[in-house]
Write a structure and sequence with these properties.
mainly alpha, single chain
Length: about 130
């Protein structure tokens, strides 16, 4: 098999993952797109390792070893990422990245700061009420 086939496939996978990271609003879909990008890198590592092992007399298989490390890091990343997304969804009620970004930057509510509705309490009172 030629080296071009896995290289083109990994480029398509990487571009699909990059589009998913840039275009998606759901945090879980963004994590899945990052996994797709990591799998494209793994495919490149293994393909180039096989290609170089055919030309070299000594085969170290360093690309395959690096792929195993990448898979382990990807598994840890998805575990921690899903735990964070579930905790944020439980606290805020949404996994939409744009809404989370707006609340993190401290934007005002749609009513504005001068609305006629009274404040419902401070952040410490809200935290005690939910605890």
């Amino acid at each position: 098999m030629h080296l071009a086939y896995p290289a083109v496939l990994s480029a398509l996978l990487f571009c699909t993952g990059l589009y998913g990271v840039l275009a998606r609003r759901n945090a879980i879909l963004v994590l899945m797109s990052v996994e797709l990008m990591l799998n494209a890198v793994n495919l490149n590592l293994v393909a180039f390792d096989v290609w170089l092992s055919r030309t070299a007399e000594e085969t170290l298989h360093s690309g395959q070893a690096l792929t195993l490390f990448t898979i382990a890091i990807a598994a840890a990343e998805i575990g921690i990422g899903l735990a964070i997304v579930l905790a944020v969804h439980r606290n805020r009620g949404t996994a939409d990245i744009d809404r989370l970004r707006d609340t993190a930057e401290g934007h005002e509510s749609p009513d504005g700061p001068d609305s006629d509705t009274p404040a419902t309490g401070t952040a410490a009172e809200k935290a005690e009420a939910t605890a």
